[in-house]
Amino acid sequence: MSIADNLRAVRASCGQARLIAVSKTRSSDEIAAAIAAGQRIFGENRVQEAQAKFPELRARHGELELHLIGPLQTNKARDAVELFDVIQTLDRPRLADALKDAMDKTGKRPRLYIEVNIGREAQKAGCAPEDVAAFLADCRAKGLEISGLMCIPPHEADPRPYFEQLRDMAGALGLPHISMGMSADYDIAAACGATEVRVGTAIFGERNYNPSR
Ligand SMILES: *Cc1c(COP(=O)(O)O)cnc(C)c1O
Hints:
Layout: H1 3-12, E1 18-22, H2 28-36, E2 41-44, H3 47-61, E3 65-68, H4 77-83, E4 86-90, H5 93-106, E5 111-116, H6 132-141, E6 148-151, H7 160-173, E7 177-179, H8 186-191, E8 196-199, H9 201-204
Parallel strand pairs: 1-2, 1-8, 2-3, 3-4, 4-5, 5-6, 6-7
Helix pairs in contact: 2-3, 4-5
The structure holds pyridoxal-5'-phosphate.
The site of pyridoxal-5'-phosphate has 13 residues, from β8 and α9.
C-alpha cells in the first residue's frame, strides 16, 4: 500500500473528523508524497524536528496546517508559536505564561488546546481532568484564547469511555475542537465525536523504533 492508498483508507473511516497526518520521524519526501495525495494538515511531536522540515515544505508546497502534538518546554515556546498553527499540548500555567509572552512578542496567535491526562496516568503529560476548568479560567485570565481539548487515553484500555469523557468535557466547557484517536482507534474516536484525529502509522507505515519519541 502506498501513502496515497493509506490516506484514502483512513479518510474513508474517519467520518467528519479532520485528519491530522502525524509525520514525526518521517522524511520530507514521505511528507511530500502525502501532500501530493491531497493532505495539507500535519502533526509533529518536536519543535526542532518540525523546524528542520516544514519551512522548506511550506516554501515548496504552499500553505500547510501544522499541529504540535508533543510536549513543549517553555524555552521552546517562542519557536513553537512561530512555526505551528495549532499547539495541542498546553498543560500547565508556566507554559501558558511562556506562550502568552511569545504570542505578544511575535504577534502570532496559534490555536491552543489543553492536553488532558484523561486516564490520570502518572507517567503522562496533561492537565488532570478535575483541574481542566480551573486551568482554562486561568488561561483566559491571562488573555489566552483556548479552543479545544486533546487527549491520549491509556494504552491497551478500551478507549471509548475516555473519548466520551473528553467529548463531554469539551461540550460542557464550550470548546469546539476535540483532538483524539490515533492509528489504532481513530475510527472509534471519530464515532465518539472527535473533530480531529491524529494518525501516523496507518498512513506512513511503522516508525523505526526510537525510545525518545
Ligand atoms: C505519534 C502520535 C500519534 C500518532 O500515532 P500513530 O499510532 O502512529 O497513529 C498521535 N498522537 C500523538 C500525541 C502522538 O505522539
